[in-house]
Design goal:
With about 290 residues, the chain is an alpha/beta fold. The protein is built from eleven helices and twelve strands. GO terms for molecular function: DNA-binding transcription factor activity; transcription cis-regulatory region binding.
């Protein structure tokens, strides 16, 4: 197939080496050389200058390389359109999620998505909100799922659901047996915090400001699980998403502390780069996220 030959030619040129091209294409080096030789014979022109260290293009090779790239691009576009016509979804999907979403929501959405669209190559990264935003901005991620509010001119940010945040404590904590707690009782407590850059940490800092809290002491952990384990061990209290502590609340491993006349809510948002292409795989994934939120 001409597309296969063009792919071999382009890979040799871009890698500047027959051996590396063969490794990337998962074929033997003699096979790569044969493809190039047959191509030169067919066109009646030398395409590549060979040397022990690298390869370079002849004038004829420059012309062919330009058109070969277009052939491969048009082929991929045609394949995409045909698959779309047949309702087949393929391609790569790179998803980034901040920790709360990545640990408690994303797995549920991906399980259904991957079952329904098994031909999509899905890559996931779970990190804090700042890292996810950076990944989307640099086109390292096709979509990001973040906690809290954000506003950037080069990004599309769309809230898809609301999250309840609650303060949790171990059973032995003096505040655990109270239903509604006056904000003054949260003064001079030991708090377990997430790291800077975390969406959860942003809302904890906001709570400190809103209630004008004085912190007796704090411990910082870089994951929700670390925060929960620290609270369960009696190290202090923490502000976490209800998603992160549902099972612990149901089994009484942790207790929810509600502040009188004060609730903490935040949006979960979808983040996309304004300049990035929107594939069919991405469109469907976003629709699955939005369906989950209903």
């Amino acid at each position: 197939m001409i597309v296969d030959v063009m792919k071999v030619f382009v890979t040799v040129i871009e890698q500047k080496n027959f051996t590396r091209a063969a490794e990337l294409l998962h074929i033997s080096q003699p096979n790569v050389s044969l493809h190039i030789k047959n191509l030169e014979n067919e066109l009646g022109a030398k395409l590549i200058h060979r040397s022990p260290k690298q390869v370079s293009l002849t004038e004829a090779g420059v012309i062919l390389y330009k058109h070969a790239k277009q052939i491969l691009l048009h082929y991929e576009e045609a394949k995409y359109e045909i698959h779309d016509l047949q309702h087949i979804v393929t391609g790569k999907l790179r998803v980034g999620a901040s920790f709360t979403i990545g640990e408690y929501i994303l797995p549920k959405v991906l399980a259904k998505y991957a079952t329904q669209y098994p031909l999509v190559d899905i890559q996931t990264i779970i990190s804090n909100t700042d890292d996810v935003i950076h990944g989307v901005r640099m086109n390292e991620l096709d979509i990001g799922l973040i906690e809290g509010k954000a506003d950037f001119q080069d990004l599309i940010i769309e809230p898809f659901m609301e999250d309840d945040m609650i303060i949790v404590a171990p059973k032995e904590h003096p505040l655990s047996q109270r239903s509604l707690i006056e904000k003054e009782l949260f003064q001079n407590q030991v708090w377990i915090l997430r790291e800077q850059g975390s969406g959860t940490r942003t809302y904890m800092d906001r709570l400190i400001d809103d209630l004008n809290l004085t912190i007796k002491r704090s411990f910082i952990f870089s994951s929700n699980q670390g925060v929960k384990e620290a609270v369960k061990a009696g190290l202090g209290i923490a502000l976490l998403s209800r998603w992160a502590v549902n099972s612990e609340l149901e089994t009484n491993l942790l207790y929810a502390l509600y502040i009188k006349n004060h609730k903490v809510k935040r949006p979960f948002s979808i983040v996309k780069n304004k300049n990035a292409e929107i594939s069919k795989a991405l469109q469907i994934f976003q629709s699955k996220i939005e369906e989950f939120a209903l």
